[in-house]
Design brief:
This protein is α+β, with helices and mostly antiparallel strands. It has one domain (2-107): Alpha-Beta Plaits (2-Layer Sandwich), CATH 3.30.70.120. The chain has two helices and six strands, in the order E-H-E-E-E-E-H-E. The strands form two sheets. A four-stranded antiparallel beta sheet has the order 2-5-1-6, covered by helices on one side. A hairpin with a 2-residue loop joins strand 3 (42-45) and strand 4 (48-51). The two termini are 17 Å apart.
């Protein structure tokens, strides 16, 4: 099992969510986050300098079975891409164990409904 985390542009979220749904990834969490990238810029408005380095982004997180890792990553890459600086990042890490509270299922069985697969 792998945990996939992605930081994407807010404007691309609906496209990413749709692409993940089409890749059979329906269970995910997301948060509004702010971050700072390479760009160093400021804005002067009415004589007051503002630091606009903090960029609004969305942080997406979900856990998938190993067989779904590549198609999940491809879905994010294709749908979040603009070609401009600031498209985001994807992080993949190992998950040792997963347990579904309602059923007590362990491991990959806890990530999907058996009767649907």
């Amino acid at each position: 099992m792998k945990k996939i985390e992605a930081i994407i542009r807010k404007s691309k979220f609906q496209e990413v969510r749709k692409a993940l749904h089409e890749a059979d990834i329906d269970f995910l969490s997301w948060w509004d986050v702010k971050g700072q990238g390479d760009a160093k810029q400021g804005l002067i408005f009415r004589g007051i300098a503002y630091d606009i380095n903090a960029i609004d982004r969305l942080y997406i997180s979900f856990v998938v079975r190993n067989i779904n890792v590549d198609k999940s990553i491809d879905a994010i890459l294709k749908s979040a891409y603009t070609g401009e600086s600031g498209d985001g990042r994807i992080f993949i890490s190992d998950v040792e164990q997963s347990i579904r509270i309602r059923t007590g299922d362990h491991g990959e069985d806890s990530l999907y409904n058996k009767d649907e697969d």
